[in-house]
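Sequence only, no structure available. Ideas?
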Amino acid sequence: RFSVMLGSALIDQELPDRALPHLERAVALQPTNASAWLLLGTAQRILGQPRAVSSLRKSLALDPTNAQGFSDLGQVLSSQGFHPEALDAYRRALALEPELVLLDEPVANVDDASREQIEAAIFALREHGSTIIIATHHIDQAYKFSAAVIRLERGRIAPPALQNILEGKVIDDD
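Reply:
I predicted one. Tokens follow.
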């Protein structure tokens, strides 16, 4: 258990490379510990290691109700170009209807059809009552998804670039 706790603390301190050996030891000692597999997969995802997929899948096999595991798996699969599989992982995370959803660039590097499906799922979660926090570099996307937007500049809250007085889609004239 100490290896899992130490690995988690090192990930929280943004030191996934130092967390990795502790988490590898944890899964070797406790191969049925879903949390250890999830943390290992998270560290591997942050470090860009392709084996994150197998660690996250092992975690989900042990705990199929872990929305974070499905979300992390979706990120890894998307970054590897497996967009249909990534979309399936995101769907499974969203099907669990979590109270809080944290998304980092949820529609980056996906085709238009997948983007529309992801956006529909996000809107459905919002209608269901989930709180959704999205990190994005696209201001139009932020206003499309949100009733409230907090803009950060150099790590600090900055005045809004625009004010969202109308909810709905952003339409390009192009």
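The helical segments are 2-12, 16-29, 34-46, 52-62, 67-79, 83-95, 112-128, 139-145.
Hope that gets you unstuck.
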